[in-house]
């Protein structure tokens, strides 16, 4: 920026009041009255850049020009941190099609999806040699999973619904995609993406991809699981059908806590097409499970996503002795979710016993039923029945603070605080009475965690309050109906801006259409 000067208009001459003009001498600066350009910067979209500051010291005799070079910070949220591709800062002339290069350009840009990256990006002469097939590789979150010859591909739609095979699978990034593939009966056995070999013929470094299961789908949609998955079924034309074409692939990757992939398996759905079929829809999925852990669905990564279940668990017996860990598994719920009583149409508490519904993050919920009490009802069995009804057979002790909290990370789990309150309800004047639980109120306190630009929902406190009522003995022949309720309330306790500091503004901005040019 010290060499940039927008007011330098005259060649080999000093421009008046142009403090950055290299043609001006000290005698010229002494005659200036002001600096027409006081600040010179480079690209204003950069987050941090150099700035040249020009001013005049009029108190000096004679007046002097003052030049300073400072680091300037861009206050905008939308700024470029680093320009790792210098060619993106200027427009390049596109290559014009000619009779000589037409076939080459058509091969590069003629498909439904193509990469705009230059070939030089893929050729790093300073990079070390690729890992040997017998070496292991430690991954970090989001890093593309490497195979011996390239990357593990997970086909997905890009510009349109047509499949692009260039989409790499990211480590620990669970994905599920669907896309459309062009097919023809005559060439079905020659289209690579329709064959099982296309998805398992390359190992993930030292780990071979094994076939876990094969399901065959008939033309009418009926699916049959094959007893043996050892036989490789390749597409082949039989009568007027092409059978054994891949309709779906599901990868399951097992990894260690150090980020090493130790096992990879693929499950296939195979089908058939007739001569009228011009395209098929394929589905692809990939999931990751840490070794020696129970695979459970996540509710966010890392923060909770509104509408997904709150994950919960309990401590095993003997914890915290060495070797024990927090087990996120409920005996009444195989998905490790915090649940409450599920309402039914008949509203009979004894009929809905054992029926639970998961608590969804961010959703305030209320449910309940009606309990009919007669004079023959015994107090102690009734109390235990209502507790089991409200809390379930095994109420969890801990709740995951994040949507992706792992079972072995004990500090990522929040203990549930249990409270008991009583309210007096006198149904008649008999002397004997008992306390029965009538409601369960769960309050989940959460906060926004991390960056202000992309805050993540984190649970910091969970309180379960059981409210009991006094039930006195009923005379013979009489009965009463008591409402039993369960409720969940989510409370945002995110801290506001501290006094004396300027609060962060609400961002409601639209980026310029060419802000990321030439990137999408």
UniProtKB/TrEMBL annotation:
All residue ranges annotated as the Tectonic-1-3 N-terminal domain in the record: 2-102
PANTHER family, A to Z: TECTONIC FAMILY MEMBER (PTHR14611), TECTONIC-1 (PTHR14611:SF1)
Assembly description: Part of the tectonic-like complex (also named B9 complex).
Keyword line: Cilium biogenesis/degradation, Glycoprotein, Signal
Protein name per Swiss-Prot or TrEMBL: TECT1 protein
GO annotation, biological process: cilium assembly; protein localization to ciliary transition zone
Top-level taxonomy: Eukaryota, Metazoa, Chordata, Craniata, Vertebrata
Family label: Belongs to the tectonic family.
GO cellular component, one term: MKS complex
Domain Tectonic-1-3 per the UniProt entry, residue ranges: 138-291, 300-492
Gene this protein is translated from: Tctn1
Listed Pfam families: DUF1619_N (PF25752), TCTN_DUF1619 (PF07773)
């Amino acid at each position: 920026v010290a060499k940039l000067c927008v007011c330098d208009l005259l060649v080999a001459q000093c421009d008046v009041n142009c403090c950055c003009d290299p043609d001006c001498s000290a005698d010229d600066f002494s005659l200036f009255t002001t600096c027409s350009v006081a600040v010179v910067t480079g690209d204003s979209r950069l987050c941090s850049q150099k700035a040249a500051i020009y001013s005049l010291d009029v108190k000096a005799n004679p007046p002097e020009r003052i030049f300073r070079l400072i680091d300037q910070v861009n206050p905008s949220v939308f700024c470029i941190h680093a320009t790792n591709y210098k060619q993106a800062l200027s427009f390049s002339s596109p290559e014009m099609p000619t009779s000589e290069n037409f076939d080459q350009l058509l091969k590069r840009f003629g498909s439904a999806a193509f990469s705009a990256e230059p070939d030089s990006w893929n050729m790093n002469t300073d990079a070390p040699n690729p890992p040997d097939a017998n070496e292991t590789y430690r991954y970090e979150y989001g890093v593309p999973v490497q195979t011996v010859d390239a990357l593990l591909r997970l086909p997905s739609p890009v510009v349109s619904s047509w499949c692009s095979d260039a989409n790499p699978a990211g480590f620990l990034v669970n994905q599920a995609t669907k896309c459309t593939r062009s097919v023809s009966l005559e060439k079905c056995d020659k289209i690579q993406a329709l064959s099982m070999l296309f998805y398992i013929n390359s190992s993930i470094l030292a780990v071979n991809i094994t076939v876990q299961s094969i399901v065959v789908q008939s033309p009418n949609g009926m699916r049959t699981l094959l007893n043996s998955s050892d036989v490789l079924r390749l597409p082949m034309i039989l009568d007027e059908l092409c059978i054994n074409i891949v309709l779906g692939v599901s990868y399951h990757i097992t990894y260690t806590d150090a980020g090493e992939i130790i096992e990879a398996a693929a499950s296939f759905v195979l089908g058939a097409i007739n001569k009228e079929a011009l395209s098929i829809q394929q589905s692809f999925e990939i999931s990751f499970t840490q070794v020696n852990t129970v695979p459970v669905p996540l509710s966010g990564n890392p923060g909770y996503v509104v509408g997904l279940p709150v994950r919960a668990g309990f401590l095993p017996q003997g914890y915290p002795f060495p070797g024990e860990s927090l087990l996120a598994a409920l005996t009444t719920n195989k998905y490790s979710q915090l649940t409450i009583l599920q309402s039914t149409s008949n509203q009979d508490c004894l009929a809905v016993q054992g029926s639970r519904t998961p608590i969804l993050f961010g959703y305030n919920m209320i449910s309940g039923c009606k309990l009919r009490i007669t004079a023959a009802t015994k107090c102690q069995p009734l109390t235990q029945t209502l507790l089991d009804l409200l809390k379930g057979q095994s109420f969890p002790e801990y709740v995951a603070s994040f949507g992706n909290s792992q079972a072995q990370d004990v500090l990522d789990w929040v203990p549930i605080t249990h409270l008991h309150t009583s309210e007096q309800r006198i149904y008649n004047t008999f002397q004997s009475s008992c306390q029965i639980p009538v409601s369960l109120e769960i309050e989940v306190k959460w906060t926004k965690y991390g960056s202000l630009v992309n805050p993540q929902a984190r649970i910091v406190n969970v309180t379960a309050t059981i409210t009991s009522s006094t039930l006195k003995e009923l005379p013979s022949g009489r009965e009463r109906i008591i409402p039993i309720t369960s409720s969940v309330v989510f409370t945002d306790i995110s801290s506001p801006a501290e006094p004396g500091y300027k609060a962060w503004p609400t961002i409601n901005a639209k980026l310029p259409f060419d802000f990321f040019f030439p990137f999408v």
